[in-house]
Amino acid sequence: MNNNTFFTGVAAATQTQVSSELKPLLKVAIDVHLALYVVALQEEGTHPKPPQRFKPADFLAWIDKQLARGFEIVTCYEAGPLGFVLHRQLRARGIINHVVRPRVWDEHRGAVKTDGRDALWMLNALDRFCAGNKKALGVVRVPTEEEERKRSRSRRTLRHPGGVPSCGHHTCCGTYSTGQKSPINL
Question: 108: domain range?
Fold first, then answer.
């Protein structure tokens, strides 16, 4: 008998062969900022862990370690001014990522808003989404890189018809949303 499978069900007619080689699921919600990611995570069958802070490059290295540990990873983060570079980096690693519409995560609006609390609320919604509640997250369509470049150019033109923005922040947002480094320091 093959030791990698087992049978479930009562009657032979309803038995289903299931592989025991299924990877454990790791759910990760990311509150994304330019210099810092606040991450809430939940390993399959456990309670959420306290939020952690990562620099963007450190986060991707941590993700690679989790993949090496054998996890199947599902992530989400809110769409924002940094674009979809992180989405593409995660997808290139074989991770299921959902970019979601921004919202107020604390539905009761009880405590002071913090990035860690937002990440935990987002993780809670991701957990419900993974369990089958497709309304738990407002997933947005991720544009192609070319669509993103065109939209970034048109938004800068609409904001600054003269061509040059009055503050470098808008230039940085357009630059960072495409994954490039900006010459302007924030």
Answer: 23-130
